[in-house]
């Protein structure tokens, strides 16, 4: 395949119409690997009235049926997770996959709220809890014995094995849009990914801010990666494409109007042009997120879009 911007694709995990289809997931994952995608991605939504599979569990399954694809989340809702258990789960995934795990983290909130209260956490202090969680996971992954003193967690001399295969630890990439979230990404992260539920213009604006923060932090930009997840509908009938996007967003985000604002749709050539603009703005990695006709999009993206990125 020609030298192009590395591209991943969202693995099917949402099933609005009917039961979970593991044959579909398996066929999609193995085909994605044979077509030359570099990664598969999942999101997290723990509470909701539609079928959506848990990402770390599903990636563990996919680790067994693939051998090259990186396995990422964009994003795990870190404020709803215990960082000690999560560090263990990801170290396990990294070992099971031969060093292919990528952890994307965010706070949630946004369009659907984040439900801390249901999990027994207070919303107050969530930023501190988030930051402590990141530090704890890194310590557990890198130190033979870890100690931590914080507002929410305190422990001394704790060992956790296995360590991730990737050294010093598996990559942590951040989501988020707020200036503070972008600063956190620069401080703690290996990269940042613009959300699918945000527009291309937002990516341009936010990636510019990150470059400025890297500069202020005197951090080598080569140590930090930029990506963008793109809700995509390749359909030569633009009206039909928009209608289907609106239907999908009304179920997934309870907001039909959000779809046309953030998704990219139209003919393959139109979609390519819009994604090229994101790459020109600095995206080093694109994650396609088809909402329907997933197998068709898997093929179309490789044949008609990726060669031009």
Helix-strand blueprint:
Layout: E1 7-10, E2 14-15, H1 22-35, E3 39-42, E4 51-52, H2 55-65, E5 70-73, E6 76-77, H3 83-96, E7 101-106, H4 126-142, E8 146-149, E9 154-158, E10 172-174, H5 179-188, E11 191-194, H6 200-216, E12 225-234, H7 238-252, H8 258-262, E13 264-266, H9 268-280, E14 285-290, H10 294-305
Describe the protein in words.
- The N and C termini lie close together (12 Å).
- The radius of gyration is 19 Å and the shape is globular.
- Helix 6 packs parallel to helix 9 (268-280) and helix 9 (268-280) crosses helix 10 (294-305).
- An eight-stranded parallel barrel has the order 1-3-5-7-10-11-12-14, surrounded by eight helices. The protein has a two-stranded antiparallel ribbon with strand order 2-4. Strands 8-9 form a two-stranded antiparallel ribbon.
- The chain is α/β, with parallel strands linked by helices.
- The protein is built from ten helices and 14 strands.
- The protein has helices spanning 22-35, 55-65, 83-96, 126-142, 179-188, 200-216, 238-252, 258-262, 268-280, 294-305; strands spanning 7-10, 14-15, 39-42, 51-52, 70-73, 76-77, 101-106, 146-149, 154-158, 172-174, 191-194, 225-234, 264-266, 285-290.
């Amino acid at each position: 395949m020609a030298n192009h911007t590395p591209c991943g694709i969202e693995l099917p995990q949402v099933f609005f119409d009917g039961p979970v289809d593991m044959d579909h997931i398996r066929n999609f994952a193995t085909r994605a690997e044979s077509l030359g995608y570099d990664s598969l991605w999942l999101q997290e939504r723990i509470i909701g009235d539609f079928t959506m599979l848990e990402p770390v569990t599903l990636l563990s399954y996919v680790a067994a049926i693939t051998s090259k694809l990186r396995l990422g989340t964009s994003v795990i809702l870190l404020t709803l997770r215990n960082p000690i258990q999560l560090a263990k789960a990801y170290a396990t995934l990294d070992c099971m996959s031969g060093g292919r795990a990528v952890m994307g983290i965010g706070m949630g909130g946004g369009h659907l709220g984040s439900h801390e209260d249901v999990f027994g956490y207070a919303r107050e202090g969530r930023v501190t809890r988030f930051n402590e969680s990141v530090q704890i996971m890194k310590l557990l992954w890198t130190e033979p014995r870890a100690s931590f003193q914080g507002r929410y967690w305190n422990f001394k001399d704790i060992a956790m094995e296995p360590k991730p295969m990737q050294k010093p630890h598996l990559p942590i990439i951040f989501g988020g849009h707020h200036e503070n979230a972008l600063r956190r990404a620069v401080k703690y992260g290996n990269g940042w990914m613009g959300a699918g539920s945000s527009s291309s213009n937002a990516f341009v604006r936010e990636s510019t801010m990150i470059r400025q923060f890297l500069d202020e932090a005197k951090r080598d930009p080569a140590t930090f990666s930029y990506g963008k997840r793109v809700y995509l509908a390749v359909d030569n009938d633009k009206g039909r494409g928009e209608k289907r996007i609106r239907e999908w967003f009304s179920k997934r985000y309870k907001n039909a109007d959000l779809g046309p604002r953030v998704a990219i749709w139209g003919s393959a050539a139109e979609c390519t042009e819009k994604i090229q603009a994101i790459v020109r703005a600095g995206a080093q990695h694109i994650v396609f997120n088809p909402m329907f006709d997933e197998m068709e999009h898997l093929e179309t993206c490789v044949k008609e879009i990726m060669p031009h990125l």
